[in-house]
Design a protein that fits this description.
heterodimer, A: 11 helices, B: OB fold (Dihydrolipoamide Acetyltransferase, E2P), 2 domains, 8 helices, 20 strands, ABC transporter permease (chain A), MetI-like (chain A), transport (chain A)
Chain lengths: ~260, ~375
């Protein structure tokens, strides 16, 4: 048994290293003093972070990403929550089909969804617009919201809503006072996920965006293909930090919710 | 036909007329009609799937009947949603709102009715005191035991004094000792608060303990509705006789009439029984006799049997008797009854009963 345990620990450690190593490498390179990607770096500096802040292309990309991320997270959460309610609590004819269609971006290759958006936008003049970008990001983040809120809704006892109704609550009041507060942790964490997904989204942004509408991942993409310097490692480290904060927030939320139940 | 005025203590608080509810091809509730009087405690008793809970849900408005009328306090409500019916409901699994304190839970229906805050506070305190939890207001439901949670649910359903209190197996999730304590408490609250209660249970002892009247459900229909003693002493159907209390079912053949009673051959011995269907001679029937109504003697008239087992129960003795045809009957004798006290295992005995205590059912 001792031997098996050792083996298990070894396998776990290897998997851990495999998962974390690229991140660590990127993190280290972001502090490199050399002007090319080299590992291990010959020396350490903050010059690439400085470059990031100084270069308007990067700062514009961050600003564009934020302008897309915020409305995407809000819209996606509102629509996804409404969709989850309709699919699970409502008596929607063809709910299975509607649900599958909404969840499709999860299984359809991202490039297909993106190409579809691009073609549809051509007639509507939405390519290269912020609105078009937000709509695209909502489409690809919606499945995550529906899945998160949906699973919370499924574990929510429908008798609570029935009880509220017998106690005199209209459906709107029951939703506001009972259903929504109980779903709040799931709704908030799905909003965080939607924000992170939107911030990371590359392919939709490549298709729908333009030279003037570049998100951070698009800027990274073109940077890697063009002048290849450790600025990309610096921004990647920052992205990682943002994701880490989001994850920590989510864990915190979950714990508070755990206290409640 | 005129409907009684709302709140008229003489009229029924609830009236069901020909209620029907179908699930696919199965009639869950099949032509149910009844009246619940003001201040009455009426219990729906039946096995699971008998239609009792569905009928309750129809009264609550949580489900819609396919046909029939529901009249609550003189007003037809069968097209109204639950929140427009003047009802309170207690669920088996409490259904307390987990994110609200006990006080907020109890205050919820008052809030929905726009009760002024000070008045609501006063009513909530009174309701919590009424169910014996005056100091638990600031706790969350999960910090309470099952019995306490059900008391809170009771307070929440009664605090706004609805016209009718509905209870769906409210004690089903509790253990036996707690259940019996709460049975008496609910009965006390019903009496003190003069509430009209519609109660659902599958536990016949609970129904007998608590109810003014019981409606026995089977296969979506009311088999019989009456006081506990009516159901017990004069069951209308074989199902009621078997579901309420313990019963010996004894096969026999009708010989003829003897005044109001019916003469029936039981194991070859002519005996008397009451019937409700004027059985013709030669008809095969089943007699239902309660164990405590069987009389045992060492000799004389009656159906011959052998005493195969004697069980001492403290306040009573149970006698297990075998007839020549092999069927076993059960007799129950209160302690202190002189007759049969000397009987021993293996003794031959004679069984008799009064005609009024044996009911003949067809088949």
């Amino acid at each position: 048994m001792g031997r098996w345990r050792l083996l298990r620990a070894l396998v776990c450690a290897l998997v851990g290293i495999y998962l974390v190593a690229p991140l660590v490498v990127v993190l280290i390179i972001s502090f490199s003093s050399a002007s090319f990607l080299r590992f291990p770096p010959p020396g350490y500096s903050l010059r690439w972070y400085e470059n990031l802040v100084r270069d308007p292309a990067w700062m514009d990309a961050v600003w564009v990403s934020i302008q897309i991320l915020v409305p995407t997270a809000l819209l996606s959460t509102a629509l996804g929550t409404a969709a989850a309610l309709a699919l699970i609590r409502g008596r929607l004819p063809g709910a299975g089909f509607v649900g599958a269609a909404l969840m499709a971006p999860l299984v359809v290759p991202s490039i297909i969804t993106s190409a579809g958006l691009y073609i549809a936008y051509r007639g509507l003049g939405l390519n290269g617009t912020l609105a078009g970008m937000v709509i695209g990001h909502v489409v690809v983040t919606l499945p995550c919201v529906i899945a998160t809120v949906g699973s919370a809704l499924r574990s929510l006892d429908p008798r609570l809503e029935a009880a509220a109704a017998t106690l005199g609550a209209t459906p709107a009041a029951a939703f506001r006072r009972i259903t929504l507060p109980l779903l709040a942790p799931a709704v908030l964490s799905s909003m965080l996920f939607a924000a992170v997904l939107s911030f990371d989204e590359l392919i939709v942004s490549l298709f729908v965006g333009s030279a003037r509408l570049r998100t951070v991942p698009v800027q990274m993409w073109s940077n890697i293909r063009g002048d290849f310097d450790p600025t990309v490692a610096a921004i990647a480290s920052l992205c990682f930090l943002v994701a880490l904060i989001a994850l920590a927030l989510e864990a915190l939320l979950r714990r508070r919710n755990g206290d409640r139940e | 036909m005129t409907l009684p005025a709302m709140g008229d203590p003489a009229g029924p608080i609830l009236e069901l007329r020909g209620i029907r509810k179908q699930y696919g091809r199965l009639a869950a509730v099949d032509d149910v009609s009844l009246e619940l009087r003001h201040g009455e405690f009426l219990t729906f008793l039946g096995p699971s799937g008998s239609g009792k809970t569905t009928t309750l849900m129809l009264v609550a408005g949580l489900q819609q009947p396919d046909s029939g009328r529901i009249i609550l306090a003189g007003k037809p409500v069968d097209r109204l949603p639950p929140y427009k019916r003047d009802i309170g409901m207690v669920f088996q699994h409490y259904a307390l709102f987990p994110h609200m304190t006990v006080r907020r839970n109890v205050a919820f229906p008052l809030e929905m009715r726009g009760t002024p805050r000070a008045e609501a506070e006063r009513l909530v305190s009174a309701a919590l005191a009424m169910v014996g939890l005056p100091d638990h207001g600031d706790r969350l439901p999960r910090q309470l035991s099952g019995g306490q949670q059900q008391r809170v649910a009771l307070a929440r359903a009664m605090v706004y004094r609805p016209a009718l209190l509905l209870m769906d197996e409210p004690l089903g999730a509790l253990d036996k000792a707690l259940r019996e304590g709460l049975q008496l408490e609910i009965k006390r609250l019903h009496r003190e608060q003069r509430m009209s209660v519609l109660y659902v249970t599958h536990d016949q002892a609970e129904a007998l303990t608590m109810s003014d009247r019981i409606a026995v459900f089977d296969e979506g229909r009311i088999q019989q509705i009456g006081t506990p003693s009516e159901l017990y002493e004069r069951p209308a159907t074989r199902f009621v006789a078997s579901f309420v209390g313990e019963t010996n079912f004894i096969p026999g053949t009708v010989l003829g009439r003897d005044g109001d009673a019916c003469r029936i051959a039981v194991a070859g011995v002519p005996m008397l029984a009451s019937d409700r269907f004027s059985a013709q001679p030669g008809t095969r029937v089943t007699l239902a006799i309660r164990p405590e109504r069987l009389r045992l003697s060492a000799a004389g008239e009656g159906v011959p049997a052998e005493l195969v087992d004697l069980i001492y129960l403290g306040n009573a003795r149970r006698y297990v008797l075998r007839l020549p045809d092999g069927t076993e009957w059960s007799a129950l004798l209160q302690a202190g009854m002189a007759d049969a006290a000397t009987l021993r295992h293996g003794d031959a005995v004679r069984l008799t009963w009064e005609a009024a205590h044996a009911t003949a059912f067809p088949g």
